[in-house]
Automatic annotation (TrEMBL):
Species the sequence originates in: Alcanivorax borkumensis (strain ATCC 700651 / DSM 11573 / NCIMB 13689 / SK2)
EC numbers: 4.2.1.17
Alphabetized Pfam families for the sequence: ECH_1
Protein name: Enoyl-CoA hydratase/isomerase, putative
Molecular functions (GO terms): delta(3)-delta(2)-enoyl-CoA isomerase activity; enoyl-CoA hydratase activity
Length: 257
């Protein structure tokens, strides 16, 4: 796989079989994201989307925290009216068609939390805290969180996060569905990597189609969703991917008798 040229050593990438693992590598600054880091992340997502060998992307952060969000110096130096690196990254992760897993430890602040809303499976360590202090910074919430958080966890819980700036601790985040699993810190990377590896072995077209249906169905009436997913199911059932998997299962079943 031809990898894009990255601007810095603050984002690391490692490909293992069909998983691209992206590491935020700025632990001394709690993985606060710079414009250069955002550009690197966009490049990597584009490369992963275009490469058929990559089925899953795994995000993790080096050090004691997943990400402190946007670098505040970059905020101060932002050009008026210009979309910063964060905007391009959020658009890229929102549009990314393949499955994304995240391993989150310590603090996930601002965009460190809202980026997770555009990922598919989030594994958190028991000490993880999701914090969205936008109002305290004098700005409004971003990355679609003003829609997604109230829709997913209810208005009152969303208000605790977006208006009060109250941290959402890992266990509560699990109970209300913001994360998929909570594990001890020492188990975090292994758990997330195992999850990504399991996903990467699944039929890729079916995996991507299922993600797309889940994401798009949020804004569609149920009757339309049923009609569309039944049609897609029937189409994919006749495809080589499904036929190959089903034939292998049938042959295995016959062989076990």
């Amino acid at each position: 796989m031809t990898m894009p040229t990255l601007e810095s050593d603050l984002v690391l990438v490692n490909n293992t079989e069909s998983v691209m693992e992206i590491t935020l590598n700025r632990p001394d600054k709690l993985n606060a994201l710079t414009n250069a880091m955002y550009r690197d992340l966009v490049k990597l997502l584009k490369a992963a989307e275009q490469n058929e060998a990559i089925h899953v992307v795994l995000f993790r952060g080096e050090g004691k925290s997943f990400s402190a969000g946007n670098d505040l110096v970059d905020f101060l130096n932002a050009t008026p009216g210009e979309a910063g690196g964060a905007a391009h990254f959020i658009q890229a992760i929102h549009d990314f068609p393949k499955v994304v897993v995240a391993a989150v430890q310590g603090n996930a602040v601002g965009l460190g939390t809202t980026m997770l809303l555009h990922m598919d499976l989030v594994v958190a360590s028991a000490d993880a805290k999701l914090v969205t202090p936008f109002v305290d910074l004098g700005v409004a919430s971003e990355a679609g969180s003003s829609k997604l958080l109230p829709a997913w966890i209810g208005y009152q819980r969303a208000a605790r996060m977006l208006l009060l700036g109250e941290p959402m601790l890992a266990q509560e985040a699990l109970e209300i569905g913001l994360v998929a699993k909570v594990v001890e810190r020492e188990e975090l990377d292994a758990t997330a990597r195992n999850m990504a590896a399991i996903l990467a072995k699944k039929p890729p077209r079916a995996l991507q189609a299922s993600k797309r249906l889940m994401r798009e169905s949020i804004n569609k009436p149920l009757h339309q969703v049923i009609k569309e997913d039944l049609a897609l199911f029937a189409e994919m059932l006749q495809g080589d991917e499904a036929k190959g998997v089903i034939a292998a299962m049938v042959n295995k079943s016959k062989g076990s008798k």
